[in-house]
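User: Round two. Same drill as before: sequence, then structure, for each protein.

Assistant: Same drill it is. First protein:
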Amino acid sequence: MNPRVRRFLRGLLVAVTGTGALFGAMQLVPYGRAHSNPPVVAEPKWDSPRTRELAVRACFDCHSNETKWPTYAKVAPLSWVVQRDVNAGREVFNFSEWHRPHDLAHYSGLSVRSHGMPPPQYRLAHPEADLTDEEKHDLARGLDATLKKPGQR
C-alpha cells in the first residue's frame, strides 16, 4: 500500500476514534437530561382560545411547564442546548406560572412580529411552530391583548 494512503487512513482512523471518544465523554456530563415539567400553577387569562392554541404550538415548549422533550434532548451536546433554551425561556416568562411577575411578557407580540420568536433553530426542529404569516399576526395580536403591561389598555 502506498505510504501516503497509509498515512491518510491512519489519520482518518485517529480522527474518527477521537471524535467517537469525545462524543462518548460528552454523554457523561450530567447536565441536560434531568427533564422536568413542574405542575402548572396558573396561566394568563387568554384573550381567545386561538391565541392559546398558537402559543401552545410556537411557545409552550420553552415558555411553560408543559415542555414536550424530544428524543434528541437526551443526547449531548443537543441535550445541553435544549435544557439551556428551556431554562432561559421559563426564566423570561412562564405561561404555567403566571402568579409570578413577568416583566418582559408584554414584549411577546413584538418578538413574534419581528421574527425573533420562535427562534429559527426551534422552527427547523419543530415544523408545527413555523407559523404562517396569518398565524403570526393572530398570535402577536393575541399575545398583545393577553399580556399587556399593567396599566395599559
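Second protein:
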Amino acid sequence: MRTVRILLAPLVAAALILSCAGTPEEPVPLPGDPPPAAVTPPPPPPGQAFDPASITPEVKRDTMEEVKSFINVVNQVIRQKDYTVWRGYLTPEYSTFYSSPAVLAEMSESAVLKRQGIKLESLQDYFLYVVYPSRQSVRVDDIEFTSPTQVKAVTITPSGDRQVYYYLEKVGESWKIGTGR
C-alpha cells in the first residue's frame, strides 16, 4: 500500500490542480453558442512523433476559439453543479481514473479535504468537492497541442506562470476533458 501511495502522490497532486468534469454523453451547447467548427489537424505520418510546430496558425486560432467556447460551457455546467451533464464532457479514461478507489483515497488525503473531513468515495464526490470549488471560472489564455487531437488549456497567471487547467481531447467533432496521457 505504501508503494501505491508513493506512486500515486504525484498523480493525485496533479489531479487536484487539473481536475474537472461533465454529464451527458453528448454535451448540449448553450443558447447563443456558435456551432462547433470542424477543425482537426492532420495526423503525423506513421512512425513519426508529433511535432507541435506542424500546427498551422489558422488551425491553432480556430482550435483556440473552439476550446474557449467549450470551457465557457463547462464553466456554466460546473457553476450549476450539474454532475450529470458534466460527465458527458469527460473521456472514458478520465471517468475511470477519477473513479478509482485508490486515486480517490489518495486525493482524500490532501490537506484541504482532510481539514474539511471529506473522504472521496465516487466520481460524483470528486466533482462536488474538487471540481466544483476549483473550476467554475477557468479562463483559457493559450493552448498547447500535444497531438493532432489533444491540447492543454493554459491560463497565464498575473505573474506570468502558465498553469494547465485542462487536458482536452477531440473525440469525433466534440471536445472532451481527458487525463493528458
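The helical segments are 2-18, 57-79, 83-87, 92-97, 101-108, 111-115, 123-134.

User: Perfect.
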